[in-house]
Every structure is written in structure tokens, then in C-alpha cells.
Design brief:
heterodimer, A: 316 residues, alpha/beta, globular, B: 280 residues, Rossmann fold, 7 strands, 12% strand
Chain lengths: 316, 280
């Protein structure tokens, strides 16, 4: 294994800790939450900055509009609720009051994807990245572990413009360097290789690291890119890697329609048509289960990445 | 003290601007615009302390948010007549490459516009956020917001209404253009609002009612509303207006919500509105 972990932590705690740090360093940062303070790990920020926190109740549309109003006056609002209620439920508010109005709002979305687990499909949004990447002016960021989520939370405060920050619920391996700065829009090459490019984001980066170890033992050289910024997409990093490897597998905890895979396919179709395989949910809703059971059932396992790599290499 | 005759002269010119703008591009929403001319003139020329050297943040000045963005003609005319941009630009309304979009937009950089509006129900939430920011900044100025009556059918309005009262956002003065009309007909037929004043009172607002087409009453009501701020409750003005006010064949009919007058109708309309400040 090219990466090791000594502990598992939830990425939402990375958000909470990053927000706490912002509370201490940036007086313009304010936070809003729609009745999910505990789930979003926002309590430390609230304790230290009670006047800069707004409890919105279960009214997400009003939260997005209120955040837009705060941003109008120069504040940097961070909204907190589940990914489902941060996107689909408030798409028109994101579109008109934030994206089209060019408001500097950070939409921070927890419990994304299948790994939410037992709550089931009502809460396991798998369409959010697609929805938000279609909105002009929005930046879309999905960090891969606790350390990177904390760094990304801090980084997006310094970026002027609407940002969608997606993270999750389960404990997950912590393997990135906590001192590494987070650069929005700059893909992170995790592993250098020559036979195939794997492009992953979020929880799937760790799955890809596991897959690389298996493939390396079989003599297949994998290049792994952590595409933590879905938009703007680091097209140069994709093209540079693929020009070397000649094939690509994308891996994401998202619907195959509208996700990173389609964004990568667009870049390749225009610049360098290349065999590609997609690890993603095949246009369905999720269901109740443990995170690992769900990743297995919906085709997002380490083994499925290994198979996809072998298939795409055979298509070269 | 406000100079009522002068404000009325401005309002008459704004009404001329509205019908000429809508006629000029053969689209837009004259009815609600004409009905709200008195309110917006009262606000921008008589009540608000505001800086026509536009800064988005609006620190230490009163702010206005238009939620029912389709009445953009009256908003644009009042902004131009206030000095935010040259009145000649009113001729570009709804035309390609114009800053005066069909519905107000920040993206074109038109001075005076702080949020995009058009999809209904969103403005009161934004106004709440702006009012909260003023409190955080110890900025003593007020936030005003105008909504339509049909717009009260949107659920988000009531989320914001509940939130503003619970959090004692008492530097916020909202107004509803209560003309009783919406696109498909009278509001009472489409989806009745019931006891709207009672609903806002039950939500915890300080509710006032006025004739929005009487300049003396409009000015007086807004002054009283300003005096009600800082007392722990958001303030609501239910403003009775006549859709299409000032042009006899448009008055009171939902048919003029969103259609433009013909050349002949424009001539009849302009004959009913004296050119007081000079046409653009």
C-alpha cells in the first residue's frame, strides 16, 4: 500500500474542525445550520462565536436566502445541512439567490452518498455533484479524508464565490498529509504510474488506493489522481496523465449520470479520445444498509475498481 | 418633511417611464409596476438614506430588496431617476446586451441591484440576511423588502416570516403589494390568502395597512414603520394598490400583469400622464 492510515475519522469532523479554526482566524465567517448542529459538528464554532451563528430551524430554502443576504453585506456564510437538503431541496435558491446573484456563500453538505448508510435512499443523495456542477459560478469541492476536508474548509473561505463542499458521515481512513495546503482546482497526484489512470474523489480515493496495491502485485502500474475539485476541473492534469497511460477509470460515490466521469469523458472526447470505464452508481437510488454493504452492492468496491482497470487496459 | 407634490410629480414621470419601457421592447410587466410607483418613489426619494455611488455591501445606508422581480420597470425607473445610472439607459430595457435585464440581475453590474429576483418567494430571506449583517456590524440603518401578494403563496416566504419574528429582526420593514391580482386572475380565486394581516400578526410581526396609491399616506405609513423598528418585531406593511394605477384602461385588471401596450394604447396612456421631469 502506497498510503497508510493510523486512524479512521469522519470527513464531517474535518469540516467542523476547519470551521472552528476559521472562527478564530476570520471574523467575517458566519455559520448557519438547519437543525443539524450535531451531525455537522458545528458545536465548537457556536460555543466560541455565538453571535456569528444562526440557527435556521428546518427551513433550508430560507437558510440559503439568508446566507445570500449576509454575503451581500460582506460576510462569508457557511451553511450546514445534509447534502440532500443542501442541493435538491434548495436548487432554485442556490441558482437565483446565490449563483446568479454571485454571492460568496459556502454550501457545506454532509452525509452525501451511499455511505450515509442505514437512513436509506431519501437521504443518500447521488445526484448533487451533477446538479451543482451545472450551476454557473459554483465551485464544487469533494475532499477525500478528514485532513483534506479540514484543509478544504479553510481554503474555501479565502476563495471569493459560491462553493459547494461535499463530505460524509462514516469513519474513513485518514491518509493525507495534514500540513499539505489545499489548492482549489489543482488535482492531486497520489500515485505515479504508467499503465492506467484512476481518477477518484471523496471516499473512493481510499478504495482506489486499495485497488492500486492489488494491481501493483499483479504487475499493473497505476497512476492515481485525487480530483478533489470537480469544478473547475483540472483538465491539464487529466490530459497529461492520460497521454502517458492511454486509458482511464473514474471512481465516484455518485450517479454515473452527471458525475465526474462524464466531466472527464467530455475533456477526453474533445482533446484525446481515450478508453474509459466508470465506477459509479448505475442510475438508481440507494437503500438501507451499512456503508460497506452498500458500496459492495452498488458496484463501488475495491474489487470493482480492479476489474474496471483490467477491462479498460484491454481496450487500449 | 417630504415634499408631497414633488414626490407625486416624480411618480407621474416614473409611470411614463414604465409604459414607455414596456412598449419599447413589447414585453414586461406594467401592471404591478404602475401600482408600486408611489411606494418606490416614497422609499427612494422620501424615506431611505442611500448612496447612489453604489457599493454592494451597503454599509451605513438603508437597503431595499425587490422580491417580486417582474416589476423591474418601476425599480429601474426609480433607480435611474434617483441617479444610480443615466435615465437614457432605460431605453435598453430587456434588449440584448443590456444591464436592464427582464428581471433584476447583479451579473450585469447595474448600480442599485443587490440580488437577482424573478423566481418568487426568495427576497424576504435575503432581506433577513442583510438585516442580520447590519446587526452584526452595529449598522443602525434599515432593510426594506417588497413582495407581491400572489407571491405569498410560496412556502419560503413563511419560512422567512417565522424566522424574522423568532429572531426579532426588528430592523426589517417588509411590504406586500396587495393589489389582489395575479397572472391567472384575482388572488381570491386562484388561491386565497385569507386573513393576511392576521396571519402575519400570528407569526409575530407588527402589521400595518395603507393605501399604496396615496403619496401622503404612503409617506406617513413608511415614517411610522421606521419608528416601529428597534422594538423587537419585524414590521409588515400591507399596501393596497391598484394594478395598472394611473392608466384608466389598465387599472384593476390582471390582464395587464405581463403584456405590453400597442402604439395606440401607449399614446392613450401617455396622454393620461404628464411629462414632469422629461422623458428619457
Amino acid at each position: 500500500m502506497k498510503y497508510q492510515f493510523t486512524e479512521k475519522k469522519d470527513t464531517r469532523s474535518g469540516f467542523g474542525d476547519g470551521l472552528t479554526e476559521l472562527g478564530r482566524t476570520n471574523p467575517e465567517v458566519v455559520a448557519l445550520c438547519a437543525d443539524l448542529v450535531g451531525s455537522l459538528k458545528m458545536a465548537p464554532f457556536i460555543k466560541e462565536n455565538p453571535s456569528r451563528f444562526f440557527q435556521m430551524g428546518i427551513s433550508e430554502a430560507n437558510m440559503m436566502g439568508t446566507a445570500a443576504g449576509l454575503a451581500t453585506a460582506g460576510k462569508i456564510p457557511f451553511t450546514g445541512t445534509f447534502a440532500n437538503f443542501s442541493t435538491g431541496r434548495v436548487y432554485d435558491q442556490l441558482r437565483q439567490s446565490i449563483a446568479y446573484s454571485e454571492k460568496n456563500v459556502k454550501v457545506c453538505a454532509s452525509h452525501a452518498g451511499l455511505t450515509l448508510g442505514e437512513d436509506g435512499a431519501t437521504h443518500q443523495i447521488l445526484e448533487d455533484v451533477g446538479m451543482i456542477k451545472m450551476l454557473p459560478n459554483f465551485t464544487v469541492v469533494v475532499p477525500c479524508d478528514y485532513n483534506q476536508t479540514k484543509a478544504a474548509t479553510i481554503a474555501i473561505a479565502a476563495h471569493n464565490g459560491p462553493v459547494y463542499l461535499r463530505f460524509g458521515r462514516p469513519s474513513w481512513p485518514v491518509f493525507t498529509d495534514p500540513t499539505e495546503p489545499f489548492i482549489i482546482g489543482k488535482a492531486q497526484k497520489m500515485i505515479t504510474g504508467t499503465d492506467v489512470t484512476i481518477i477518484a474523489y471523496g471516499h473512493m480515493v481510499w478504495k482506489a488506493i486499495e485497488a492500486e496495491a492489488i494491481l501493483e502485485a499483479e504487475g499493473i502500474s497505476v497512476e492515481l489522481i485525487n480530483m478533489h475539485t470537480i469544478k473547475p476541473l483540472d483538465e491539464a492534469a487529466i490530459l497529461a496523465s492520460v497521454s502517458k497511460t492511454g486509458c482511464v477509470v473514474t471512481a465516484e460515490e455518485h450517479n454515473i449520470l452527471g458525475g465526474l466521469g462524464e466531466s472527464v469523458a467530455r475533456v477526453l472526447a474533445i482533446n484525446n479520445p481515450t478508453p474509459q470505464e466508470f465506477i459509479a452508481v448505475n442510475d438508481s437510488f440507494g437503500e438501507s444498509g451499512t456503508p460497506d454493504q452498500l458500496l459492495e452492492k452498488y458496484g463501488l468496491s475495491t474489487e470493482k475498481i480492479v476489474l474496471a482497470v483490467k477491462k479498460v487496459i484491454s481496450r487500449k | 418633511m417630504a415634499n408631497i407634490p414633488e414626490l407625486e410629480r416624480i411618480t407621474t414621470q416614473v409611470r411614463r417611464d414604465i409604459v414607455r419601457m414596456v412598449h419599447g421592447c413589447q414585453s414586461g410587466h406594467p401592471g404591478g409596476s404602475l401600482g408600486c410607483a408611489d411606494y418606490l418613489v416614497a422609499l427612494y426619494f422620501g424615506i431611505m438614506k442611500h448612496d447612489t455611488n453604489f457599493k454592494m455591501e451597503g454599509i451605513n445606508e438603508d437597503l431595499f430588496f425587490l422580491s417580486n422581480g417582474h416589476i423591474s420597470p418601476v425599480f429601474y425607473s426609480v433607480l435611474a431617476r434617483s441617479g444610480y445610472f443615466n435615465v437614457s439607459e432605460l431605453a435598453t430595457f430587456r434588449k440584448l446586451n443590456a444591464r436592464l435585464q427582464g428581471h433584476p440581475a447583479t451579473a450585469e453590474g447595474l448600480p442599485g441591484i443587490r440580488m437577482s429576483a424573478g423566481s418568487l418567494g426568495q427576497g424576504l430571506s435575503v432581506a433577513c440576511g442583510a438585516a442580520l449583517a447590519k446587526k452584526l456590524n452595529n449598522d443602525p440603518y434599515k432593510v426594506f423588502c417588497l413582495m407581491g401578494d400572489g407571491e405569498q403563496q410560496e412556502g419560503q416566504v413563511w419560512e422567512a416570516a417565522m424566522y424574522a419574528a423568532h429572531n426579532k429582526i426588528d430592523n426589517l420593514i417588509a411590504t406586500i403589494d396587495y393589489n389582489g391580482q395575479q397572472i391567472d386572475g384575482p388572488v381570491d380565486q386562484v388561491l386565497s390568502l385569507g386573513d393576511l394581516a392576521g396571519k402575519y400578526r400570528a407569526f409575530g410581526w407588527d402589521v400595518m395597512e395603507c393605501d399604496g396609491n396615496s403619496m401622503p399616506e404612503m409617506i406617513n405609513t413608511l415614517n411610522v414603520a421606521v419608528n416601529k423598528t428597534g422594538q423587537g418585531r419585524p414590521v409588515m406593511i400591507l399596501m393596497k394598490t391598484v394594478m395598472g394605477k394611473g392608466i384608466d384602461f389598465m387599472e384593476g385588471s390582471h390582464k395587464w400583469h405581463g403584456i405590453a401596450p400597442s402604439d395606440e394604447q401607449l399614446e392613450i396612456a401617455l396622454n393620461q400622464l404628464e411629462e414632469t421631469l422629461g422623458d428619457y
